[in-house]
Amino acid sequence: MIRALYVKWDNTPGIVSFATKASDVSDIPFPAITICPEVKSQVSRFNFTDAYHKHKAGKLNKASLNTFITMWQICDLGAGNDHAPRLYDNHCIRTLRDLAVPKSSLLKQCLWGRQTLNCSQEFHTTVTDQGICYTFNSLSLLHLLRVGEVHPDFLIDGGVDNPPRRASTSGKKTSLVVVLQTNQNDLDYLCGSCIQGYKVQLHAPTDYPSLSNYIQVPLDQEVSVEVIPHLALTTNSIRHYSPDRRNCFFQEERKLRFFSVYSQANCELECLSNYTVKLCGCTRFSMPRARLVPVCGVGAMRCYQMAEYSLLQMDGCHCMPACSTLQYDAEISQADFDWHHMKQFKLDHKERIHLSYLIVYFKEPKFIAIKRSELYGDTEFLANCGGLLGLFLGVSLLSFAEILYYCTLKPFVLWWNWRRLRSIEGTD
What we know:
This protein is an alpha+beta fold. The protein has helices at about 1-10, 50-55, 60-70, 90-100, 105, 120, 140-145, 245, 265-280, 300-315, 380-395, 395-425; strands spanning about 15-20, 25, 30-35, 105-110, 115, 125-130, 130-135, 175-185, 195-205, 215-220, 220-235, 325-335, 355-360, 365, 370-375. Strand 6 (about 125-130) and strand 7 (about 130-135) form a beta hairpin. The two termini are about 60 Å apart.
């Protein structure tokens, strides 16, 4: 029974429980919001569908061919076997940024509560696997990334150098509202999908966005997102255990090369980048990389896709959660956005545009955090062992003193008395 108790203490030293007191949403940051348009390029700058048909007919000039091959990486058209010689594409990020819809055209209106925001200042540009995206309320890239380690191309936009915003309470009065604009002429169903609009991800301000999961915001629709936070904290009583035993890392215990802040998402992204470099000799444009590491081109697409699949199968990153984590769940509702009848959106009839309405707010003013604390400390383990020994053997601390006496001091006393007795008998 003592052995079973030791195994339990060794394997599960911590326990996860609910906090005894509810926390206010004002105690935590508002989620960071990354918006990725389905439109990857403005038609006035590059028409992907037209370039695709010209390429099939062999009529695409060299300059357009280079742009077309770069766009191939974010347009879901297969692994790009037709362009196998193009292994590297170091100008990929610059090309995608030059072709992308600028913030001033995409972000029509931004509101924080009832206050109007400057969209271009509040949203900073980020590079994801969906191409060029725009992020609100995240840490500045200059603080989130290690500037001396990461390639300068990855630092497209430093972002707002302010602490993440916090909502004073729940509900639409303290919400983020973003009106998104799409030009009808820019819609390209070959580079993208039949569902036009935007992909939106909610994430912690300390996480770099990765569009593995997202909320779809269609054209001419209003999407309301009710946010439910999940906060996990770890007490100092469990800090002296090894990370593998408590199943989390404190910030100072796991240093990342490219990120200043440790989180499981940042760790997994960096691990994938390092593994891709090891396997392919380059890394995907959306992954942080060192200054001398090249960007994979279309010819290496199958390789970096295989690298991601292989790494998932191996689970070799050892990226455990941070000991203090903040995640956001969402409940979504959607309705038609009949913006044509709104005075503030009156436009010239010659303009063919679509508007989408996104509103994000906390669902409840309070939430219950979870807490990781010590289940069995040294004192509890010793007390449980003593209880078992006392129950079955009548053992106490005095018993151990008696055992020590009879094993060490008692034999010595008997030997000493026997020796004295022999010496007396010898004298007689």
